[in-house]
Amino acid sequence: MLGTTTQLYATMARAERLHERVHLSCFRTHGGLSFPLCLRPVTGNEPLRTDATNFSTWAATHRQEIESLLRKHGALLLRGFGGSSATAETFADFVEFGLKLPNFPYELGNAVRTCVVRDRVFTANESPPDKPIPWHHELAQTPSYPERILFYCDVPPEVGGSTPILLSTAVYEAVKRAHPAFIEKLEETGVIYSRVMTAHDRPESAIGRGWRKTFAVQSRVDAEKKLAARGYRWQWFSDDDDAMLREISPRLDGVKEVGNGEKKAFFNQMVAVWNGWRDEFNTPEKCVRYGDDTELDPNVMADVTRILNEHAVAIPWQKGDVLYIDNMQVQHSRSTFSGKRRVLASLANAPRMGSGASGVHSSANNTVKVDR
Are 171 and 311 in contact (CB under 8 A)? Predict the structure, then answer.
């Protein structure tokens, strides 16, 4: 259900309305909760001045509250962090020192990316702007995936270039109603993924990351060690050091329980593979199959794609925006664009909230505005 431009606002510390409003007309509601939830940081009733110290301090002060809202809503859009004064370094400090998120290295992924700030922040998928990036949970095609994803808008796109998101728990219910046999088999057998890759990156392909960077290795022997450790099978296409490689994943879940087992999510990369894993070496029909190695029904996959698209929320980027996603609940994609666009990303696991974590001390002079 799409939301309207009429929203309620409250502080984290007190149940009261604030005078300034965050207008976000493109959100949806699921179970009475906004998706995504839009937050504007303030100090008292004044917008938070954006610099690395204030940004990180605000996040550290409200860290437990932010995480609680993320688990509840699935995604948070943090808007209003100061426009032109925000930087990639500000974003890195926010992730590392503010939210104190454990870093998740980008291994086994197929997107070409470049590190920007101290192995915490890198470019989002560098595939050509005229190629959309289909729906996926980050690294769900692998046995190891991040619990959190953060995107930061450094340069807003001139035309297009949004990052649509959807709630996978809602998608699971919709797909199950439309195709119960598909969901039943997916839950029974799981899914396997296969990809052919060259030794070096091919930026012209959305899945063009070479096996040397995919596994952070320089030799075939070391690549095989990492594949074996993760339960993969593999095939080399020649005997030379720059041979092409086919990786075949172990059987992975296509559906996952989330929220302490309270809900199920359509957690996979199936639609991304079906609609995007196509280049001179790969075809979707070979790249994704049921866990028993049988083929997917093209008609079902087309309709599943339609269902996911119907659940999309596409938020136009503004300079300084941070989109904080619970990767276990939410899929994302990328629209095509033209002109300049620079969106950065950081992968992480959930923060450790034990001893030594920053406490939450809300007060009248340290509040958060919430767009419900």
Answer: yes
